[in-house]
Amino acid sequence: MDERIKSQLKIYDSLTREKKVFEPLNESFVGMYVCGPTVYNHVHLGNCRTFTSFDVIFRYLKFLGYTVRYVRNITDVGHLVNDADEGEDKIAKEAKANDLEPMEVVQKYTSGFHQIMRELNNLSPSIEPTATGHIIEQIEMAKALLEKGLAYEVNGSVYFDVEKYHEQKHYGRLSGRKIEELATGQREIEGTKDKKSPLDFALWKKAIKGHIMRWPSPWGEGFPGWHIECSAMGKKYLGEVFDIHGGGMDLKFPHHECEIAQASGVTGQDPVQYWMHTNMLTVNGQRMGKSVGNAILPQELFKGDHELLDKAYSPMVLRFAMLQTHYRSTMDLSNDALRAAEKGYKRLINALNALEKLTTLKSDTQEIDNKLDEEINKLVDTIFHGLNDDFNTARAIASLFNLVKKINGFYTGQLNLQDISNQTFNRTYKAFKAVFFDILGLKVEAPADAEKLIENFVNEYKKAKSIRDFEAVDRMREYFKENGLAFRDMKEKIDWVLEE
Ligand code: AMP
Ligand code: ZN
Q1: Which residues contact 266 (CB under 8 A, 6 or more apart)?
Q2: What per-residue confidence (pLDDT) applies to 463?
Q3: Which of 49, 184, 217, 422 satisfies CB 3.0 to 4.6 Å to 281 for a cystine?
Q4: pLDDT digits (tens, 9 = 90+) for 345-391
Q5: What average pLDDT is seen over the chain?
Q6: Candidates 39, 45, 47, 330: which one to mutate for ligand 1, based on the most atoms within 8 Å of Cβ?
Q7: How far is 317 from 368, CA to CA, in rounded Å?
Q8: H-type helices in 413-469, by residue range?
Q9: Is 227 a pocket residue for ligand 1 (Cβ < 6 Å)?
């Protein structure tokens, strides 16, 4: 690994609101926690965007040579409807409605989630812990907060005492909310019930009669609050303080604000070095969400089976479309954006194929065109400058396209391949492949029978051209196009590419 590139990575921290040079706690190890899905329904494209953004972050850190422990949890208990402390558990509600065991619901949607992650070529996290598998750790943390005087028990439930915590530490730092405003805002929405203050949140809830997900605890039968699972599992697998914690922007408050309060309440330390939040995927400017009623499922997009879509788009086109926007910007999903991504994605594959062919043509260089050689090296550098600028994949891809112009120049003969050094060519070849496959996590989705089609047609096409049978030429071109391919007429030979 190029140490110079590695040392230039900067990450935007949502807590300090600064872009900081990345310095992990341990020299070569990075601990990263990302809040995973609540598995009570299918993940939609918005969820997929967040997990794909963190997949690229995971991939890039690994590319830089770090050993990364990536923990992404599965929320399978404790997340109540309305994201509040009252009401039904999302999973229990779904189970009841369909006459299923809660764990059947969890299994079904966890499997579905994994399937989509695979289709999008997202790597598996290093650990995928479940909330129900860590009830003991959550109880232990609630006990520790009780001992510190930062929590109190009422009627079999345990609540975090926000005002007490706020006397020592600032509650609302991450989300930028003021505790006074929060207090007045909340009182209007929700009755205080057992809580001393409406700001307080549940660490443990008593299970009332009929609540099906329940475990024994020192306070009677109940279930954990939503926020405590991530604090407990983050601490267990990554330690009291770790490098990166992420999730979508909508999790800043209350979820991550509460996580900071819980963890620093126990240890006295800020638990996370870099808080990372992905921006929202929107449709017509509105955040995509199940509750908003505008959720599009990945399968609907892959089949083109949705009223807002004019055709089907493949998983890699979706992935590429997502990466063409920086993770901290909103991304509006549209046919135009998807169509442009499809075109761009094909252009990259064609360049990849061209680059592969160029390797056989590159020979030792007698006289190097220094200007061109330097230009190519700079283009490669700018790809990494983009990635180092808070994982700005949009910038990196724009630079990649500038490099594609040069690759195509060499391929068509406009530029002379022998004008650049072997070293520069090899660096370009390696960097292009590493960025495409390893960092952006793209795969080649060529039409399945492309090779066969080409085998059958190239000779006929050549013949038709040589005898100037343009009708036959057009027919073949048309047929090729229907299969997503195009002939490329070169000086010496006929080649094929994906129709862009
Ligand atoms: P959930 O299962 O609802 O907790 O969501 C799982 C992840 O997806 C969380 O990190 C959310 O912040 C994120 N998320 C939800 N909606 C969107 C959206 N429209 N765009 C991007 N990320 C989202
Ligand atoms: Zn979480």
Answers
A1: 141, 144, 145, 148, 231, 235, 240
A2: 87
A3: 49
A4: 999 999 999 999 999 989 887 799 999 999 999 999 999 999 999 99
A5: 94
A6: 47
A7: 38
A8: 422-433, 450-466
A9: no
